[in-house]
Design a protein that fits this description.
two-stranded antiparallel ribbon; alpha+beta; four-stranded mixed sheet
Length: about 110
Amino acid sequence: MAHARFRRALRFDLLVANILAGPLVALAPTLTARLNPGGYLLLAGLLAPQAQAVLGAYRARGLNLVHELGDREWPTLLLRKGRVSRLPPARMEPDLERFRLKQPCFAPNGLALD
């Protein structure tokens, strides 16, 4: 998040972090601050026994669990900044059109994602 291209982009509708539980907890203030109200955060790379600690770090900053994906050993947490309305199971497929990039975004290596 310290890369110049990320610093220029004020906030995001969707952030994805696939790293270990310790860094996910440490990054909670930064990731939460960079997320638009109503935006989504997808967290992966943690083990099941670590999920509650990671979730607690983000709940303390106003994010709420939308859905837990993945398997029992390696859960993936989908969080939303602000209120969450639970969707019925048939509607759990994400609306990918909502996340279509309106402008290019850049990976830390400088490659454009579009």
